[in-house]
Amino acid sequence: MPLENKKIIALVSDDFEDLELWYPVLRLREAGATVHLVAEKKETVYHGKYGVPVTSNYSFDEVTKEEYDGILVPGGWSPDKLRRFPKVIEFVQYFNQQKKPIGQICHAGWVLISAGILNGVNVTSTPGIKDDMTNAGAIWHDIPAITDGHIISSRRPPDLPEYMKQYIAAFE
Q1: pLDDT tens for each residue of 152-165
Q2: Mean pLDDT, range 80-90, rounded to an integer
Q3: Burial code of 20-43, b = ≥16 C-beta within 10 A, e = fewer?
Q4: Which intervals of the chain form a coiled coil (predicted)?
Q5: Does the predicted model carry a pTM greater than 0.85?
Q6: Are strands 34-39 and 7-11 parallel, antiparallel or unpaired?
Q7: Which residues are known to be catalytic?
């Protein structure tokens, strides 16, 4: 189990892209990681764009970021909501400062933009936010997934297998 004893935050808010949350969570758990679903409210049901539910384990305020080894930001429309929470920005900035794996896919780049951590970083995302990413100083690539140090990014659901290979490898 390559990720045994690793703890990872998966951020949750309504309108997440169902596959972009669940596929990584399941892959990480299969690899031995403990993944906590963290949202504005504890033990609350949130729904993905296609209706798939998820129940949060903890609220943003209950999480001690120092206890975690990585963070995942799913895509969909939830990143636009997530980036409005100061705690979410604090989490992403902390993981960036500590050089711990930060995974982002599709529209999740919005959260990293709001955290101000993309200047000079090689990334990918949905082409719909390419301009946002480059305006934040990122170097954007139209490829399935890319790792730049501790930041792992991907474009969309068909790219999930490559994204998760790179994300899991970031812990090794």
Answers
A1: 999 999 999 999 99
A2: 98
A3: bbbbbbebbeebebebbbbbbebe
A4: none
A5: yes
A6: parallel
A7: 107
